[in-house]
Each structure stands twice: as C-alpha cells, then as structure tokens.
Amino acid sequence: MAATARCQYDSQRRLTRPDPRGPNLASLSPEYAYTLRMLRNSNIADNEVFERARLSRDARFDGRFFIGVKTTGIYCRPICPANMPKSQNVSFYSTAAAAGEAGYRPCLRCRPECAPGTPAWEGTSTTVRRALRLIADGALDDGDIEHLSGRLGVTSRHLRRLFHKHLGASPLAVAHTQRLHFAKRLIDQTTLPMADIAVTSGFGSTRRFNDAFRKTYDRTPRELRRRRAVSEPSAGLTVQLPYRTPFSFAQLLQFFAARAIPGVEVVRDGRYLRSVTIDGVHSIIDLQDDGANVLLTVHGAGTRSLLPIIQRVRGIFDLDASPDDVTSVLSRDKTLKALLRKQPGIRVPGVWDGFELTVRAILGQQISVVAATTLSGRLAKRYGEPTDVSVPGAKDEQTPQLIFPRPEKLLRARLGDLGIIRSRADTIRRTAKAVVEGQISFDSAQSVDDFCQSLVEIKGIGEWTAQYIAMRALKDPDAFPHSDLGLLRAFDAPDRERMKPTELKSRAEAWRPWRAYAALLLWSSGENSGG
User: Fold this and answer.
1) Could you say which of 3.30.450.20, 1.10.3210.10, 1.20.1050.90, 1.10.10.60 is the CATH number of the domain covering 126-226?
2) How much is the pLDDT for 1?
3) For residue 228, what pLDDT is reported?
4) 31-69 pLDDT tens trace
C-alpha cells in the first residue's frame, strides 16, 4: 500500500487537507501529538477525534481503534484502502473485540488480525494490563474467568466491569478475538491443516473452529484459504509478526549479539536463533526482518506450542511498542531528543526466560558485558540440557545446541571453578531456591513493585538488578536502574562532576512512563550498554 496521508489542522484544530508526503515516523508533529492525546484520553463517544484519525488514514493509529461500518456490517483498521464510508455510517471501537461484540465482521481487505499490537499498558488500569498479558499467554483458553480473576486478586464481576470500561468488551470476548485473529493469520500465512490450526489457536475442536469462522466471516476456514495463495514453506513453520515503524531490527540484533549465551543463542547474517523449551519440548526459534514484519520460523516444536512462542517472541523484540508515544514524552529532554533523532525506533529488548535473565544479571554485576557473557556460556555448557533440534542448511556451530539450565539444576551447582566468585555463586543458588519454592515467579499477573521487593530480599540482589529484570522480563516500560554507571556516564561533561544516582532519578521523573526506553537510549550512547 502506498504511503498513507497524514492529517493537517488549522489553528482551530479543524481538519483541512491530507499531506501527500505521508507520515513522518521519525518525528512527532504537534498535530499528531494533539490528536493522539485526545484519542488516548477520550471515550468512545468522542467521534470527532476518531473521525480525524480515520480521514487521515494515518498508519500511526493502526491498531489503536477500529471502525464499524454500519452499511456493510464489517469492521476495519483506520488504514483500510476501501472506499471511505460516510461519517454517519461508521461507529468507533477501542478494540477489535468490542467491534466483534457489537456484531461486526472483520474486514477481509485490511485484515484487522494483521494490525500491530497496542501496548497492554496503554490507556488501561493496572489490573486490565496484567489480565491482557495473561490472556495473551492463553489464560482463558479454557474459558475459566474465575481462575483468571483469582490470579489477579479481584472478583470476576469487577474484572468484567474493568474490561468494559477500558476496552469495551468482556475478557472472554477479548480471548475469543485473539484466538480468531491468530487462526486467521495461520490460514493466510501457512499450509497447516485446519485441524492443527483449530488446536493451535485454542478452539479445542474442529467443530467449534468451523462454527466460529462461519459466524464471524460468513465463510468456512477452507473458503478463506482459497482466497489467498500460500507458498509451501521450505523448512520449519514461518509466521509474520507485524510491528509499528520505525523499528530497528539491526539495533536489537546488536544488543542480543553482545549478550548471546554461547550454545544457547546465535546471532548471524541478520538472524537471531536461540534454543527454547515449552512444556518439555525443545525447539529453535529463528528470526529475521523483512522490512514490515519480523519473520518467525520455529524448528522442532509442535503446533500446540506456536501461540505461546509467538507471544514470548513479541515480548523479546518489543513488537507491540508504540514509538510515537515514547517520542512524545522523551523528546522533551534535550539529551534524549538528540538520541531519538539517531534512534527513532528504539525498543526495550525482552527475554525468553526470566530465570535465565536473572542469572545473567547476577553474573553481570560489576563486570563487563563480555565477561558476563563468557561466564553464562560456561554455566550453560556444564548444567544446560543438550538439544538435538536442527536448522536445515545450518552447520552445528551456527545452531544453538543447549537449553539454559533450569533452577532445579542450579540449587547445589558447583560454580567456583567456572570463574564465578563465591558471593555471586551463592546468590545464584539462593535465587534458584527461591524460584523452585515459589517465592519468586516471573508471572506477568503480579505487581512489578511486589516482584522487585521479593527480588531485593535475596542476599546479593540489589535495586539495580531488580529494575533491570523488571525492564526485560516483566516488560515494565517504566523500570529504571537509576544507579547504573552507564546511565550516569551518559551525562558526563568536561565542565561538571558526574551525575549522582539521586539526581538522575529526579530528572527521570519527567520521562515516565517510558523510563525503560530512556535507559536503552542512554546506554546506546556510551561504551557501557547495560547488563
């Protein structure tokens, strides 16, 4: 699709004409910032705000809301290339699930299932944010909302009320829409049998799967597949993971390459490969960028593992981030504004496994990134589990060979002869014990503050380590290790003393709720690029 036009407004903030140059994604215009603020702070009744975004067909609003077309009974993305319906014939919904609950069918032309994700924390309460992460991980595949609400510490009635207030749809509707959209993408992008897609997407049975598609699309899954040509995959199972631009895949690869655990992760030829395990099944994930999507190829895993793998990969590469929101806040700081011009697509790298990251962060205390990576490789080589999953066309040395050791393996691990000093070895064993006994978990349902408090109660883990883990494992966009030497060095100047941690923490208050992104920007500006 050609570059979409962005909207321009006069001094009274009225829509005047589209700008044929298309959206400038590297910067945030005052007009866009104004509309975005109104959009985020408005309720669904504020049709003027949604109408401005719809008429501009601005790609930066893609996924933020959906348009129900009364005359056709379908709902679309704001960038839909179809003839634009009249204003009196549209309704606006904050989520695809809300549009579906209102009786609209997904558009087969703009394909709402391919819209980039909206950050789970945006415009919602903390409880809804945590619930959305759990639903994305399959918490409602069995339809047990009582269990979900119990994990969140609220009643099911209160959870439903919060979802309708913030998302315009019930938790079950959100889960159903997620399953439906995921299945539609598999139909379009793969040659998987329909029975496998039904199970993979959480429908439980082919009959339920077929009934859902007939009701939603007025077509069977096979009829939908015949609409699109799907090429046979050469090896593995490949799916497209969309993201919002700007997005620097190369920058993320550089971050991962510096920290790649030997035997567990490989970064080469513009690709990121690592060994993973889901429900005891080993596999290798292989990722590269095609300029519009991250292409994920899974080797070794069955189709049942595909959805949880995709959700974790989206977190690892921060694919649901909204760079314009980050820019609108951080660019108010002169130092960060200059860094954003160089790196407009900044992302916070996630991690496959929270325990692995915690061990890596402990090893990285007060030593270089290179040294911590070496120690991590030694640990994985001794206590990791071998995997025999192969990647077609790749040599053994180009393929991950180990699964990072589970906490049970490190409870009594002998680490002294690996070059790990006694205090850190003791901290690793204490952390493993806390995880095994359930004192520490990486469940996204928990409060970030409670998580950090539990971590710092372990001898040898301080606030820096806790904040770093919260940033990458729990995907907290506001986590900020303010005592980090690399962050403090970023503000060094010949005519002044080095900034103190308390000064940095005070300055960072203006960067909320995106302090984690500020940390990545500052790390990238110096030699010390964080744990």
Assistant:
1) 1.10.10.60
2) 34
3) 67
4) 455 455 544 544 444 567 788 889 888 777 888 899 999
76 labelled catalytic: yes
Please say whether the beta carbons of 163 and 155 come within 8 A.
no
Question: Quick one: pLDDT at residue 304?
Answer: 81
Contacts of 232 (CB under 8 A, 6+ apart): 191
| Active site annotation includes 7 | no
CB 381 within 8 Å of CB 402: yes
User: Phi and psi at residue 429, in whole multiples of 5°?
Assistant: -65, -40
pLDDT (0 to 100) of residue 124: 62
Q: What are phi and psi of 7, to 5 degrees?
A: -90, 145
Instruction: Quick: pLDDT tens for 257-292.
Output: 999 999 999 999 999 999 999 888 999 999 999 998
Instruction: Give the amino acid at 133.
Output: R
CATH 3.40.10.10 residue spans of the chain: 6-107
Handedness of CA 466, 309, 111, 140 (dihedral sign): negative
The type of residue at 313 is V
Which of 232, 209, 231 is closest to 222 using CA atoms? 209
Q: Which of 7, 76, 107, 110 is labelled catalytic?
A: 76
Report the DSSP beta bridge partners of residue 493.
496
The CATH homologous superfamily of the domain defined by 238-320+351-474: Hypothetical protein; domain 2 (1.10.340.30)
What is the C-alpha to C-alpha distance for residues 379 and 431, in angstroms, rounded to an integer?
15
User: Where, residue-wise, is CATH 1.10.10.60 in the chain?
Assistant: 126-226
Catalytic residue chosen out of the listed positions 188, 324, 478, 484: 484
Q: Which stretches of the chain drop beneath a pLDDT of 70?
A: 1-47, 119-124, 228-235, 526-531
Task: Give one DSSP letter per residue of 283-341, joined into a string.
Answer: EEEEEEE-SSEEEEEEES--GGGHHHHHHHHHHHTTTT--HHHHHHHHTTSHHHHHHHH
Residue ranges, CATH 1.10.340.30, the chain = 238-320+351-474
- Highest CATH level, class, for 6-107: alpha beta
